[in-house]
C-alpha cells in the first residue's frame, strides 16, 4: 500500500509540510517494502486550483493514504470521491515520524 | 465617447463623480451609465428606478458520462484544476473554471460540451429622462467579476455617450472596465494613500493606452504632492472638489450635488468637455 506524505524535502527525514497543494515535495512510502519515492510538486507555485491538481497526481500514483496538515475543500472532495484515506499530522516531525504514527494508528482521520 | 471613472484607492468618490457627470449630461443629451463595480454596485442608490433583470452566464463544461473514457486529457489540460478525472467519473469544480473551453477541444471522445451557468445579473433601468442605467451585480459566491463587467459593457455598446464607473484597485475588474475606453477620469484625494494608488492607476491607464485626467476630491487644500505628480506626468486636473460638510451630507443621503446645487453642473460639464479634448481622444 502506498502512503503519500506532504514534505518540505525529498527524503523521509525531511519535515512534514502542513500545506497540501503547495507542499514542495510528496513522499510516497510503500508500507510493504519500506521503500520510498519522492516527487517534486510541479504545482507548488501555481496560481490557483493547485489542490485538485495535486490530488489528481496522487490518484495517478495510486496512493491509498494521504498524510498532510491542512486540506482544502476541493482537494478533499477529490480524494474522498476516490476513496483515499486522509489523515492529519501537525506535530512538526519528519515524514518518517508521521509514517510511524500512521502505522501505530495514532493519527487523526480527516472526515 | 466611452468614459471610465477609476481611482486606484477606494472611497475617493468615483461613484459621486460618475453619478453627477451622468446626471448633468443627461439634462441635454442621452447618456448611459454603467456600474462596473459588480462586487459592490452602488449607482442605483443615486438613481432609484424599477429595473429589468438580465442573467449573465458563462459557459462551463458538461460531461456526457457514457461517452467519457476517463483518459484524463481534460484534467491534464486544465490550468485551473477545475477537472479531476477518477477511474470511474469526472469531478468538476465550477468555481475554478475560467470558461476557456479548452477541455471541449482536447476531449478525444467529444464527451464534453458547454452549458451556460449563471454568475451574475444586469439590472437595466431608465431612472431619468435621457439616462439609462446598467448595473452589473456578481452573484454571491461567484469568483470571477470579469464576465459580468464584459456583459454590462456589451449592453451599452453603440450608445453615444457611455460613462463607466469602475471598481477600486488596479486588478482584472478595473482592467476589463478600462479596456477600450476613449478616456478615463482618475479620482483621487489629498492623502498619501490617495496619491500612492493614483500612481498605480495612472500606470494601468497608460499601459492600456487610455488617456487620463485627474479629479481631486475632498481636497483640504494640501494638494501639493498630487499637483506635482500630475505636472510630472502631464496629467490634467479636471476638477478639484473641496472637503465640505454640505457636499458630504448631500452624498450621504443618496442625493446628487448637481441636483441640489445646480451651480456645480457647469463644472461637471466642463470635465466632460476636457476629457473630449485630452490628447489621444478622438
Rounded mean pLDDT of chain B is: 96
Q: Strand sequence of the main sheet of chain A, in spatial order?
A: 3-2-1-4-5-6
What structural class results from the helix and strand content of chain A? alpha/beta
**Gyration radius of chain A, in Å:** 12 Å
Provide a descriptive summary of the structure in words.
The complex is a heterodimer of chains A (111) and B (282). In chain A, helix 1 (50-60) runs parallel beside helix 2 (73-81). Chain A has helices spanning 50-60, 73-81, 95-103, and strands at residues 2-7, 25-30, 36-40, 65-68, 85-88, 108-109. Chain A is of the alpha/beta class and 111 residues long. Chain A is 26% helix and 24% strand. Chain A has a 6-stranded mixed sheet, sandwiched between helices. Chain A has one domain (2-109): Dinitrogenase iron-molybdenum cofactor biosynthesis domain (Nucleotidyltransferase, domain 5, 2-Layer Sandwich), CATH 3.30.420. The model of chain A has no long low-confidence stretch (mean pLDDT 93). Chain B has helices at 14-26, 43-46, 73-77, 102-106, 146-155, 172-178, 192-208, 224-232, 245-252, 257-260, 265-276; strands at 2-6, 31-35, 52-63, 83-85, 90-92, 112-128, 131-138, 162-165, 183-189, 212-219, 236-242. Chain B is built from 11 helices and 11 strands. Chain B has 282 residues and is an alpha/beta fold. In chain B, strand 6 (112-128) and strand 7 form a beta hairpin. In chain B, the strands form 2 sheets. Chain B has a 9-stranded mixed sheet with strand order 3-6-7-2-8-1-9-10-11, sandwiched between helices. In chain B, strands 4-5 form a two-stranded antiparallel ribbon. Chain B starts with a strand and ends in a 6-residue tail after the last helix. Chain B has 2 domains: 2-56 and 119-276, Rossmann fold (3-Layer(aba) Sandwich); 59-118, Alpha-Beta Plaits. In chain B, helix 1 packs across helix 11 (265-276) and helix 5 (146-155) packs parallel to helix 6. Helix content of chain B is 33%, strand content 28%. At the A-B interface, helix 1 and helix 2 of A face loops of B.
